[in-house]
Design goal:
Radius of gyration of chain B: 13 Å
Largest interface: A-B, 20 and 24 residues
Helix content of chain A: under 10%
Mean pLDDT of chain A: 93
Structural class of chain A: mainly beta
Oligomer: heterodimer
Distance between the termini of chain B: 37 Å
Distance between the termini of chain A: 41 Å
Number of helices of chain A: 0
Number of strands of chain A: 11
Chain lengths: 113, 113
């Protein structure tokens, strides 16, 4: 089955700096890649997603890039703010064979004011 | 905006007892999922449910687990004889026919003593 790896496990940045979180996946058939943000004690919430027919997607300060050849995708957060502090999970899914997500191990992002 | 709801928010039980975790998915969604998250670890897929039957399950979802949609709104996860290692946050999720974004519930924290 799919194996998703995520780096780094922890990341600290100064407010206003950029943060980048990277994920790799093993199954070349995976075609949907969401990113979830999970604040302490709360549910994971989708912040951005990308499908395999697109190389990049941006939503205000958040962007995701996908390299299908290398089988990796990254989350980019610019102009970070303290409220961006949370755990971020990447995930992958092959929609053609099933709907389950395979999650990465998570990145704990701390934005220092 | 419609949300997935879960009850209870926290369940404490003794080892060997049966527990039922309850979820109300978003009303027009067709696919339902249970995930678990052991403290500090990644979210792990347990089972997916579609058209009143299990469509996928992971190796974690062994014979002590079962799921049911007893009526038109609830989706339940039953653990027959809980073990200490079942202590985790259990998330329910649902998505619609498009099978893209999964919406997560707030989770039930299960503590087995």
């Amino acid at each position: 089955g799919e194996n998703v790896e995520q780096h780094p496990s922890t990341l600290s940045v100064q407010e206003g700096d950029s943060a980048v979180i990277k994920c790799t996946y093993s199954d070349s058939a995976s075609n949907y890649f969401p990113w979830y943000k999970q604040e302490l004690g709360k549910r994971p919430q989708l912040i951005i997603d990308i499908r395999s027919n697109v190389g990049e997607k941006k939503d205000q300060r958040i962007a995701v890039t996908l390299n299908k050849t290398a089988k990796h995708f990254s989350l980019h957060i610019t102009e970070t703010q303290p409220e961006d502090s949370a755990v971020y999970f990447c995930a992958a899914r092959d929609s053609n064979t099933g709907n389950q997500f395979y999650f990465g191990t998570g990145t704990s992002l701390t934005v220092i004011p | 905006e419609p949300e997935v709801t879960q009850t209870p928010s926290h369940q404490v039980t003794q080892m060997g007892q049966e527990v039922i975790l309850r979820c109300v998915p978003i009303s027009n969604h067709l696919y339902f999922y249970w995930y678990r998250q052991i403290l500090g670890q990644k979210v792990e897929f347990l089972v997916s449910f579609y058209n009143n039957e299990i469509s996928e399950k992971s190796e974690i979802f062994d014979d002590q687990f079962s799921v049911e949609r007893p009526d038109g709104s609830n989706f339940t996860l039953k653990i027959r004889s809980t073990k200490l290692e079942d202590s985790a946050m259990y998330f329910c999720a649902s998505d619609g026919l498009a099978g893209e974004e999964q919406y997560f519930g707030p989770g039930t924290r299960l503590t087995v003593t």
